[in-house]
Amino acid sequence: MDPHLLRTFVEVAETGSFSAAADRLSYTQSAVSQQIAALEADLGTPLLTRRPVALTPAGERLRRHSKIILVRLEAARADVTRTIAPPGRLTLGLTPLAWSAPVAAALTRIRAESARLRTRLLVAELDRIVAATTTGATDLGLVDGFTAPSDPLRLPEPGDRQAARVTECPAVVAVPAGHPLARRGSVELADLADAYWIDAPGVAPLHRLPLDGLRAGLHYDGAEVTVLTGLVAAGHGLAVLPEWLVTGAAGLAAVPLGVPRLVHRVELLRAPAADDPDEPASRLATLLTA
């Protein structure tokens, strides 16, 4: 199977539209249709219905395989490129709430050991960091999320199933300092179903919390943590955040979660080729997970 055809197929499957896939890929719609037809001819079975556009049972099976195949191809390319790249480089990807004092201290130590180390930091949403680390675009990835105590994070495909824990702290509800809830000893999320929440997909998305029905009073599409905490402090909505971020922050109060009890967890992902113990990425990974 031609990987170019697979990429086109995945775009159509994800967008549910030949025209939207064409826009993403900078192709014409007729070119996308021809590529899908060529892939179907190669496999001898329809993969998509046309009106409406939807996956057939065979198309659903291929979609699951395609994402893994394309990731492996990107990982192979990154691994080969790494062999001809000059030494002394470190690329670290992280989600906004994965940055913390221990991470900063570990990175400072690694950079002090290598005066000429060229370092690049990529801050992005969870899906992008998982993909970048899996394909080798970044040497290491630090991702965060909220989960039950001691449970691993639920990572999107094709996430690393051997991710290592870096930090874990209680999750709290962040409210304005003068909010009536600020004096509560604990709160249950179910009791706040009618409250207004801030949905910040790039920082603390509501859909990753283990409770349906929370109402978003405001959508924040950025990834600046200080903007999110400022919105909470100004009374625009509530947010579930790590305790370390809220405690002591100006204008905020941290209300412990009773039910469900959640923790904020940071995990380390490693690129397939980032296993040379003498490389900065491996030394940084050792410090982060010590």
Automatic annotation (TrEMBL):
<feature type="domain" description="HTH lysR-type">
    <location>
        <begin position="1"/>
        <end position="56"/>
    </location>
</feature>
<dbReference type="InterPro" id="IPR036388">
    <property type="entry name" value="WH-like_DNA-bd_sf"/>
</dbReference>
<keyword id="KW-0804">Transcription</keyword>
<dbReference type="InterPro" id="IPR000847">
    <property type="entry name" value="LysR_HTH_N"/>
</dbReference>
<dbReference type="InterPro" id="IPR005119">
    <property type="entry name" value="LysR_subst-bd"/>
</dbReference>
<protein>
    <submittedName>
        <fullName>DNA-binding transcriptional regulator, LysR family</fullName>
    </submittedName>
</protein>
<dbReference type="InterPro" id="IPR036390">
    <property type="entry name" value="WH_DNA-bd_sf"/>
</dbReference>
<keyword id="KW-0805">Transcription regulation</keyword>
<dbReference type="GO" id="GO:0000976">
    <property type="term" value="F:transcription cis-regulatory region binding"/>
</dbReference>
<keyword id="KW-0238">DNA-binding</keyword>
<comment type="similarity">
    <text>Belongs to the LysR transcriptional regulatory family.</text>
</comment>
<dbReference type="Pfam" id="PF00126">
    <property type="entry name" value="HTH_1"/>
</dbReference>
<dbReference type="Pfam" id="PF03466">
    <property type="entry name" value="LysR_substrate"/>
</dbReference>
<dbReference type="GO" id="GO:0003700">
    <property type="term" value="F:DNA-binding transcription factor activity"/>
</dbReference>
